[in-house]
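[Meeting: bench + compute handoff]

Bench side (C.D.) handed over the final construct sequence. Compute side (W.E.) agreed to return the predicted structure before the next meeting so the bench team could plan truncations. Sequence as handed over:
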Amino acid sequence: MDHPVARIGITYRRMTEHDLEAAHRLSHAVRWPHRLPDWQFAHSLGIGYVAETGKTVVGTVLCWHHGADYATLGMFIVHPEWRRKGVGRALIARAMSELGERNVSLMATGSGTALHQGLGFEAAGAIHHHQGSAFCPKLIALAPGERIRPLGLRDHAELADLYTRAAGMPRAAVMAALMEAAECVVIDRDDELLGCAVLRRYGHGYAIGPVLAPDADRAKALISHWAGTYTGAFVRIDVPAASGLSSWLDDLGLLQVDTVVTMVRGAPARPEGALKVFAIVNQSLG
């Protein structure tokens, strides 16, 4: 017997760069803030699928390999008129076929958790979405010998290693792509990188992330640098609930406006050593 979705005229295929404008329009239809360049950035790093009826894209999903053991999944959209018809499940099944036996993580809204649980994902935490434009950053003192400075060309390899250790999975490709489109500052002590914060154009303004640091105080110092630099601009940051930064961000003027659930199929990635991810790139790439 044909699948119900096949009978209503939905087809699926690999996403190409020629689909990105349609994907961008779809994201606007569900009130996502993504610009076309945000779609282009995400697609350049991963593999995507579209669901379409006729020549109209009504669903999308992207996935990204992070080495042989880990992957992330996101940019998952189904047009409201086509929900509850099996489209989302079919899209995710195609993405998961690309990922094999890798441990896969994604961010799910409250309404999406049941679908992902049915596909073998389990809740593993939460991400708080903060945003704002009026900031009151306070000077946060670093330890003697430490300083915040711009990223240098000679720092790129060390920065990629820093991100891999903090995330617990290979992240060199993601960081290299960010360095083509973003600004970055680091905490330095005797020419050793202790942490970093990336800022780039995103959505309605700018996004801070990733932020990598060995502790919350250094993460706050890095975030405060960008908040002070971009006071008056619209800025977004997504932080793990376990980071303990949400109340501080609210006081800073970056107000919490939403929460999504981190879900994992398989084993979650574990950071190496004391480094932690205090802010993610975005809710798709993690």
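W.E. noted at the follow-up: Confidence is low (pLDDT under 50) at residues 1-7. C.D. will use this when planning the next construct.
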